[in-house]
Amino acid sequence: QQQVKQSPQSLIVQKGGISIINCAYENTAFDYFPWYQQFPGKGPALLIAIRPDVSEKKEGRFTISFNKSAKQFSLHIMDSQPGDSATYFCAASIRGSGSRLTFGEGTQLTVNP
Amino acid sequence: DGGITQSPKYLFRKEGQNVTLSCEQNLNHDAMYWYRQDPGQGLRLIYYSQIVNDFQKGDIAEGYSVSREKKESFPLTVTSAQKNPTAFYLCASSLRDNKNIQYFGAGTRLSVL
User: Fold this and answer.
1) Cα of B90 to nearest chain A Cα, Å
2) Tens-digit pLDDT profile for residues A46-90
3) Which of A58, A67, A103, B95 is deepest in the core (most CB within 10 A)?
4) How far apart are CA B9 and CA A28, in angstroms?
5) A39 alpha carbon, distance to own chain's centre
6) How far apart are CA B112 and CA B87, in angstroms?
């Protein structure tokens, strides 16, 4: 079964610090790697995504780093803010095949003021 | 406003009872999905539909049923065969030719009385 493994399960960071969440995948056919952000009581929302033809993608304070050979990708949140406190899910899919998203287990991030 | 509406927000099920969770979207999306969210397990796919009058089982379809009679609607029935129904249920939708970007509703929390 296709799997995406995410760590850590929970993360506490001080305001202004860097939050790092890691994911590893097994299926080398995956070619799209999004991150979703979920606030309590809400549905997840797409935050940022990367394709394997690039090693890094940055949008504001959020950066995805991608290591194709290691089959790993990570989310970095720079200058973390209390408003970033949420659950983050990595995911993977195969474009164009009709395949659905495979999600990681989720990381609950708490940014202390 | 375009979006996905899930109702009710909270639902309680008695032993042996079937309950139906509603999901309506006005995004004109072809594909719709149902996920179950449990702490530490991420989002697990229950059922998905790529077109009206067609749907496929996901990873944990046992004890659930769906219908897709209209493009806008994808209701999920949690049957009495689902022995552990307590969870947060999320509905999502996407364009048929871009399943990678999924838009989620705010969820329904189901509990057993």
Assistant:
1) 7
2) 999 999 899 999 999 999 999 999 999 999 999 999 999 999 999
3) A103
4) 38
5) 15
6) 10
Q: Whose CA is closest to B13, among B79, B62, B96, B76? A: B79
pLDDT in tens, B31-90: 999 999 998 788 999 999 999 999 999 999 999 999 999 999 999 999 998 989 999 999
Q: Which of A6, A93, A104 shows the shortest C-beta gap to B100?
A: A93
Residues in chain B: 113
Which amino acid belongs to residue A13?
V
Backbone angles phi, psi at B74, to 5 degrees: -145, 75
Helix or strand or coil: residue A83?
helix
The upper half-sphere exposure of residue A63, i.e. CA atoms within 13 Å in the direction of its Cβ, equals: 14
Report chain A's mean pLDDT, rounded to a whole number: 93
A58 bridge partner residues: A63
Q: Which of A90, A104, A57, A96 is nearest to B95 (CA)?
A: A96
Distance CA A23, CA B90 (A): 22
Q: Are A49 and A31 in contact (CB under 8 A)?
A: no
Q: Name every residue whose Cβ is closer than 8 Å to that of residue B55 and which is 6 or more positions away in sequence.
A: B47, B48, B49, B66, B67, B68, B74
